[in-house]
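Review box. Two proteins, two foldings.
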Amino acid sequence: MAKNYADLALAKFADAEKYAPHWGRLNLKWSEALRYDGKRDDATKRFARAAQLHLTADERAELARARAVGTARGAARGNRKG
């Protein structure tokens, strides 16, 4: 993802889900990759899934920040004309 290969990262996340479907951090990072790739609706669903799973305190804080950024961006898009 850091090298602008979100599509490859998404494929790896999908493969990893086969082995660890209930891993909160996997869903958290997957949602970030989806957002980076422009798939906001899918990212929102993954963020919600991550919130239901076990996350460390740091990961919960990261999730809250990521969701706040996504909400702010969505509100900004909704206020645009055109």
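Next protein.
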Amino acid sequence: MSEQDLLLIEQYYRNALSEAESLAFEQRMADDEAFRAEALSHKKALLAIELYGKEQMKKKLRERPLVKADRLYRVWPWMLGICTLILLMLFWRIESQKQLEKPTEPVTPSTSPTTPIPSGTAKPLPQQADNDNIKQTTNTQKLFATAYHPFQEGGTGNNVRSNGQNPDPDKMTGLNQLKQLALEQKHAECLEAYEKLPAGTQQKEMALFFKANSLLALGRTDEAAGLFEGVASSQQSAYASHAQWYAALCALKTGDLPKAKKWLQELGSNNNASAAQRTKAKNLLRQLR
């Protein structure tokens, strides 16, 4: 093999030939068997040299790394310190930004005790409002104490009258016994008698009215109010007008003036009530105004 052929083979495997020269080289390998064998042998030699060079480089790198481990041990504390400093600076910047973006609350100027308050806009002080409420409650309690009397059949303004005879307890029905106990002011016994009535009798308006009468006398105002209001709403009941009066008194005792006025107005215009009942309701309503 001539020196010129060896140079040509080396240039081919190093991609140093032109396209025309590479085609001519490959055609010669196809036609000349001896030349093809020499070229393949030369290729193997080049590959062996290349592999040897790589192995030598790996060996050198293993024996002598680019960065020594002891240098890393000396460098990492500095790197950690720099990272910590950067994080602290970021945290300080974020907190500063939050403080700048936080809205400031407007300062409300305080009003001194001597500062006059414009007329028409003044509101009662809490203590004054409490005093007004106490005063109003006291007035309603006084009105209730003056107006309230347990129901007595045939009394002033009562249009449900008895025959004036004392009934025989042994001949009385459960409902009549309940009524008699209420009229005799035996209110605890009246409530016990109500519980003994049959379920159907308990729902009668007469039984409910006298039960409510005893409840109110015993100070159980809320329970009595519900029963009085139920009887007052029934226009067919003989006790409806009386129930209106006592429903108003219950509302007056609990301080519910709007409800008390409502029942008094209804009683004052109730044509089924007696003249005395209507007058009594109008007089009390006038005092509430």
